[in-house]
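Consortium newsletter contribution from the modelling node. Members have asked for a concrete example of what our holo predictions look like. Here is one, prepared for the adenosine-5'-triphosphate complex that several groups have been discussing at recent meetings.
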Amino acid sequence: MTAQSGTAQASENTPQDNVVADLPTEKIAMKGVYKAFGNNHVLQGADLVVPKGKSLVVIGGSGTGKSVMLKCILGLLHPDSGSIKIDGQETADLSTQDRDDLMRKFGMLFQGAALFDSLKIWENVAFGLVQGRGMKKKQAREIAVEKIRAVGLRAEVADLYPAELSGGMQKRVGLARAVAADPEIIFFDEPTTGLDPIMADVINDLIVEQVKGLGATALSITHDMASARKIADHVAMIYEGRIIWHGSVEELDNSGNPYVDQFIHGRADGPITSGQVR
Amino acid sequence: MQAASQTLETKKSGFNPLTPLLDVCTVLGSGILSFLEATGRLAAFTGQAVGHCFAPRFFPAQIARQLIDIGYYSLPVVGMTALFTGMVLALQSYTGFTRFNAESAIAGVVVLSITRELSPVLAGLMVAGRVGAAIAAEIGTMRVTEQIDALRTLSVNPFKYLIAPRVIAGTLMLPILVLTGDIIGVMGGYIVSIYNLGFSPVSYLSQTWDVMQNIDVVSGLAKAGVFGFIVAIMGCYHGFNSKRGAQGVGSATTNAVVSASILILIFNYLLTQIFFS
Ligand SMILES: Nc1ncnc2c1ncn2[C@@H]1O[C@H](COP(=O)(O)OP(=O)(O)OP(=O)(O)O)[C@@H](O)[C@H]1O
Ligand SMILES: [Mg+2]
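And here is the predicted structure:
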């Protein structure tokens, strides 16, 4: 089994399938998830629990399967085996319709922003509101412009197309789109990558506000330790397809785990060697 | 070392004369299996796509955009193709038919060839090149840049938003394009016959009218509907399953055009068989 190096948090939220009272506290519960692409065994029994209203940050080397893990939870990729529960409901065998309905709970910032390049910026941000929820365009535009401002962009950007924006600006639009509909669960795949330090902090504040202010549950991936410390309640580290450490953000610095220590201090020498990072 | 392994190999094959035969079977067998698998996947995709064309919810703005993209913007290509085909048809049949003193058959040959075969098939192939490629490239790019995943996270089913509008537009617009092509093609034949070959306009038109039957036009339009469906489905299928990277999108585009073109030719034969036998 996975070595979830003895933390209080992990035992507090052990999934108990038949205890209904436990369900609301566990927004996302992932157990023994395997996913391979041909011979590339990316996830090898990943376990992860995100409590309701908390922010979990996943850290880990490049190519260790962090993005794949998010996509498995969202149902964009189908795990080879294992269980993924959202609000206590098993998601593996949902019908297409139920899956579409479940998606309403989610907002996702993709690593590559994934903006719709045939649509204007404001239409991108308002997309979930207009197409997903049938809101009137005028009202949706107002919300979109407000969200565009919240991620530190000028309102004039609203009428441009994604191709006319820099990479960091696109990323922020992606973030605005992810939070536009105030979803219950938000996934941020490297929200601050490609941003300057000041803007990164603006984004950190925005994420904190979504979680603390609006009660959303957040699952983020980041390589930016400053950002991780600011936005995380809990931190999990993924290595070789498993979660090898899991604890609160305060425990991060004295985790006693050599992998975590090496990672957060960014040292080249340690148990993680560059050859092992796929 | 090398010599040793070589003798070992000759020994082996000398030992068992069935080995090469089995190899052939293995290659053939896995080829057939992967072909069947691909066919099955395409069939499942097609079934899903058609299902989403008829089940709400619909995206009228997307459908309208595709009707214009696929239909209206294909008009010049299809029109030019039909015009020159009709013209060359009149010219060719004239030079051929004077040998049998059968010049009077030209009007009939032009109208039958155009409505039954040339207009639907050539329009289908031109649209496969123009629209099929564009669909595969657009959807393939959306796939590799995760825009399709993004659609799903925003609670919009990509089959309803991307694929159904294209399939609907392809199936509806190609018959209209072909009908336009029919008219332009016959006009092309008329122009050459009158201004180049010296036919009388009245008798040319009355011959055209006498020869043409409803089934000629209707069968061509029915074919066109099928071809439009094929083009849209192949574009969507290959784009949707595009491999990652620019190369993936490139080969998705090529495959979409090639497979649509071949399927058009195959279905053209099958449909002709059904209509006229
Ligand atoms: N759709 C896919 N098809 C094939 N292989 C994939 C696919 N998606 C991801 N992979 C592979 O899975 C592995 C993990 O990829 P993933 O994107 O999850 O890494 P990551 O942890 O997010 O890395 P980074 O921090 O660089 O974003 C990589 O080896 C990648 O090549
Ligand atoms: Mg990633």
